[in-house]
Write a structure and sequence with these properties.
The protein is of the alpha+beta class and 358 residues long. It is built from 7 helices and 17 strands. It has a single domain, classed as Chorismate synthase AroC (Chorismate synthase, AroC fold).
Amino acid sequence: MAANTFGTLFRLTTFGESHGQAIGGIVDGCPAGIPFDQEFIQTELDRRKPGQSHITTPRTEDDQVEILSGVFDGKTTGTPIAFVIKNKDQISKDYDSIKDIYRPGHADYTYDAKYGHRDHRGSGRASARETASRVVGGAIAKMILHRMGIDIIAYVSRVHKIETTKTYKDLNLSKIEESIIRCPDEEIAIEMINLIEFTRQEGDSLGGTITCVCKEVPAGLGEPVFDKLNATLGHAMLSINAVKGFEIGDGFASTYKKGSEHNDSIREGTASNHDGGIQGGISNGKDIVFNVAFKPVSTISKSQTTTNKDGEQVDFSTEGRHDPCVLPRAVPIVEAMAALVLIDALLLQNTQNILKTQ
C-alpha cells in the first residue's frame, strides 16, 4: 500500500515527481462554504518556492497553483479540491551521470531496494519538491483555522551551532518574513546567513532546527491512545524530507528535570508550559510549541565516495542546483503539516461532540 494520503477526515493526497510534468494533490473532506482565498495559497507557495534568495537553490519555479475542482463562486463546495502545479525549470541532464550511482544520504538505494526501479532525476518522488503540494493543502487548512482564531507560526531557531537563546515569547514573530533565513532574532540571523554563505562556497551544507508555535488551539484535541495529538504532529513532521527529530515542549531537556520542576498546571495565569500545550495526548488550551530537526542537505558539490549498482566503490561530485541549507524554505512546510494535523483534530473532535449539540 502506497501511503500518499495524510489525514483521517481532512485528507491530502499528493502526486508527482521533481522532474515530471507536474506535481499536485487532492484535498478531500474540506467543509463546504469556506471562503477560498487563492491569493493566500499562492503567498504560502511563494514562501516555499526555490530561487527566493542567494542562500537557496537558484532553480526558478513559479509554483503557480491551478485549482481544478471543489471551488465555486469563491467558496469551497464540499467536494474534492484538486490542484496542480506545473514543473518548468527542471534540468534532468544534470542527473545523467548518477543514474547508476547511489548517492550517500539519499533515497537512491532504498527506492531501488523497495521498488526495483527508481527515477534518478532529482530523486523523483523522494524529492522535496513534493512538499509544494503539502503547502497547498496546509494553506487550505489554514484558511479554516484562521476563521477559528488559530494561528500557526514557525521560524528558524538554529542553523548548525548558531542558535537563538530567546524563546518565542521574547521574539518579535512579525519579523520572521523580513529575514531571508526566517529567523526573527536579527543579530543571530546575520550570523546564520554568513555561515550558510561560507558553507556554500565550500560545497557543503548545513542542518538545524525549526520552532513552531500554534496559538489559540482549544483544549480537548487529540485521539488517544494511538492518535495522540503529539503523536500525529510527530508523524506529520517526520514525514517531511530531511527531518530527523521532533520534540514537543521541553522535549529531551525534560529528562534533566524532576517531576516537581516539569509538571504543568492548567491553572489560569500559570506561565509554565513544559509539556508544549499537550497533556495525555490532548491539547490543554495553552500554546502548542515544538521543534523539528533537519539534517544537512544530502546533495553537495564536494567530492564523495559511494557505491554504484554493481557494488563498486566510486568517487563522484553532484551537479545541479541545490540548497546549502533547507531551513528557510522548510518553515512554511512545517506550518502546513501542523495545519493539516490541527484541522483534522478539530473535525474529529466535532464528531466526538455531536451528541452534545442535540
